[in-house]
User: Fold Molybdopterin-dependent oxidoreductase from Amycolatopsis tucumanensis.
Amino acid sequence: MRRDAIADPWGARTPYGPGQSWPVRVDSQLADGLTEDDVDRWVPTAAVLHSNGDGLELAVKDGRLVGVRGRAEDRVNRGRVDPKDLYGWQANASPDRLTTPLVRRDGRLVEASWDEAMGLVADRSRALLDERGPSSIGFYTSGQLFCEEYYTLAAIAHGAIGTNHLDGNTRLCTATAAAALKETFGCDGQPGSYTDVDHADVIALYGHNVAETQSVLWSRMLDRLAGPNPPSLLCVDPRDTPVARAATVHLAPLPGTNLALMNALLHEIIARDWVDHDYLDRCSVGFDQLAALVADYPPERAAEICRVPAARIREAAALLGGAQRLLSTVLQGFYQSHQATAAAVQVNNINLVRGMLGRPGCGVLQMNGQPTAENTRECGADGDLTGFRNWANDAHVAELADLWNLEVKQIPHYAPPTHAMQIFRYAENGSLRLLWVSATNPAVSLPDLARIRSILSQDRLFLVVQDVFLTETAELADVVLPAAMWGEKTGVFTNADRTVHLSEKAVDPPGQARPDLDIFLDYARRMDFRDRDGQPFPSWHDAETAFEAWKRASAGRPCDYSGLSYGKLRQRAIQWPCDAEHPDGTERLYADGKFFAQPGYCEDYGRDLVTGAPADQNEYRAFNPDGKAMLKAAEYVPPHEMPSAEHPFALITGRTIYQFHTRTKTGRVPQLRDAAPEVWLEMSEQDAKAHDLSEGDLAEITTPRGAVRARVRIRGVRDGVLFLPFHYGYWDTGDQSGRHRAANELTITDWDPVSKQPLFKTAAAAIRRAEGAR
Assistant:
């Protein structure tokens, strides 16, 4: 069904009731003048411009992509297509695609052969390994590659080279999701399923603007709201989003105070005994400590901290406490804010205290921000070890060494794998001399951009960028490697509810562009990496052999893919774990009340939620000897940077439905570009009046780090809060000298102590009319 997805991003309603299957609605979009009869073939894939994992088919005619349609049978979307995907396939044919390698000569990037470019990378790598050792080399990757590519990168970085410095830009969007799941369940992996929307009578969304970040999932929720016996919604968000407007109860706390609010909600639930004591006794540890701490957070105390009426907090608690089937979801409003992991863990705590886990409609989804963020985490390309293994468990490291046929000492495990903010710090101080960036754009997406540009521009840092366009980061590189895009290569990727899709190659990449997997394997061969028997490492040579190797690495771990194959995935998408015991996949984790938390099996021994101090195996075993779910509490502490007389506003950044990440793809698609062409500022009507600003005025927003100019939009954001979308960089401005457009010119170099996720929602800011503007 064709539709104008800019004017109508969520499409027509297909109402349904609790326990019913979500009705099919197939969206499609073809190039002008074409019909489905003109299409040569349809190639299966899944959505790549958000984290929902919608099943799609790409239309091919004369060797070119000419459109897309939803897959009616897909469990995730039942045929619906997000606006970004409906139009985003056009980016593959952009005339400014990178089609040949580039190398820096005399200060300029010039075209080169693959041999020259890869030769430079390999030569510099060998020299650094000889002179400075493995820790002089680091990798920063994406949440948009395929599983096979992440696994290969992890094997090369942690195994062949032996560097600890490998992370993904998932550190910016879902590191807290992983951390919160590990703190509560001992391991990463979403407990819930999207089908819980079909059964829930209460859906609680914490910092999750699902209407814009996962529009198809919002369509599912809207269809439940339009049907009989609709669920109640709780929305926690300082902005008046579409979710907030549909909510039964909307709480709008001041940024940086989420934990205080969550403690108050738990206070009410426990004080009123909306507690499943039998479930807690059987399945959890830590309830007494949790109850003791939240006893000090009555709604009146949280109201003072969060500036939310105490009566509204009680109303929200009653909604949660009265739920028969509670689904809770979490995203960036919690993950990118102060005390991120501590706040996200309290969401888990609410579902556990209520006994709402493992049954239809009862679940937690600590959401992802990118399409393959789950794979980054599973494969060990995000600051963890492959297969959700525990870096502090010697047996897990030895198991990985056996899988790779390497010596144990070759795999660094003296400390946790290095997180992204520390990798850039090592580059800043000169101990890291080669940084390989793949499929991401830190020169726009990381906080405090002036600092990031200075780091990436250092002469002593050899910067390799592997991407599909000449991004702001690529313009600073010493070597640029042209990569194939989605639709131009084959691989699997896994969404936020553990659904695995196979994405088949539909068309050839342009020019000399190569799949990321081929580039990584080419590097490994040029470096002549070998296992302990002298055989080439990694041992695989293409996507399917890489997937088979990954299956072996995942076998027996929570993210078990051993029962999957390309052939099986060509039939339908399947949720992991999928093994001999669960050949059709697993819809919900922990349905049997058993967790991946046993001391010898868990992925992590946990951390103090306030300081981030790690626990060791003995401490973990003493706290949780039987591997139960863990209820963990934390005191609220104020953010490091608070509004002041000079900077009286709290600045938050976020996303819009029409753009993705740094607009590398979506900004090149006419419909999406024109729908949201420029950065804007949202503020409340009262704050606008106080600063003599009107709709459309050009304002200047400042923090101690820099200044951004944006047109004012007066919206329902709470007083004292400013909002900027973070997507907008400089590649399409024609002039990078001003640098007053990217929201991250303003954000702070600070991160959560547990997840190490940067904080994009706690900067203190000032605002005024831009000079000479009205």
Q: What stands out?
A: The mean pLDDT is 97. Residues 114-131 form the longest helix (18 residues). The radius of gyration is 25 Å.
